[in-house]
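Quick one:
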Amino acid sequence: MIHVADVNDLQYLTIHKVGNPSKDEPLVFSKAPIDLSNEDISRLLLNYFIQPFANNGEYYHLYHAVEIALNDIYVYISRIFEDKANFQEQSFHIAKHLHDSSTHPKIKGGELYIAYFNKCLVDGEEVEAIGIFKSETKETYLKVYLHDDNYEVNYEDGINISKLDKGCLIFNIDKENGYRVSIIDALSKQNEAVYWKDDFLKVKRREDTYLQTENYVDLCTAFINTKLTENFDVSRADQIDLLNKSANYFKEKERFDLDEFTEEVILQPAVIETFKEFKQQFETNHELSLPDSFEISNQAFKKQAKIFKSILKLDKNFHVYIHGRADMIEKGFDDITGLNYYKLFFKEEA
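Output:
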């Protein structure tokens, strides 16, 4: 986890203009890093760069299919970590690499910021980091000012420092495996936006507790919402009950254990066997290897918890939120009306 309050030492910052070569947009270099002596400007820049990474426990690493030393960003970043005197020269290479990676016609040009942070606290470890950030969108701001005893209005286009379009922090940890990388990509849902991760940085998710928790949450919800109903006669209320029990397991336990989970949550031997078979197919389909035991990441669970939907939808008339005690719900069929019904038992109204 990145503690943004402990990222407070922005030592170097340079800015280059990176256009889209398919639109004949240029690449414009700054000759030298900018002056950071103005404390107010430095504080605003630090907030702009770092705040979006708050509570981000999802890490990547730089990679290359042949060997990590062939990853361009890995080479340039390593040279800076080895000698900070290389900062400006290597920033030229980083900007040129981004320019070469920005050929999709929908990719927007923008300002590229490359920063060196001397101190960052990451998972309890104090390390140095390189930040690479890009602003692609401009917003219009009104300027209200006093002129000759009258207020006047004008406008300027600028960058909203509360909205970072793209960014990454590369921490000087685990160099031999491609460093530890945290990424922000505000436009990642657009197809052309994958260039930031896939073409420019070339990163993969780290095989850590965050990813393991995320994968198991996906596995459990996929099983309950699809495979369970295909193989067994279960009501929607029973599905929701199992979703709630699964969510509570991830919420309350510090460590996931496959045998413990199946015995405490799934219970029925036939369903447990089907779940384990589904796990093997899930691993094959997603090219994963899911461990039987690992530390649960609370950050990953909180991010994924919303997919444990506990809503019982009855036609278009009713939505019933179920948080537990499936034994207090009874399903039946009314012969007179020809309709299904649920009977809910409770002690008192809240």
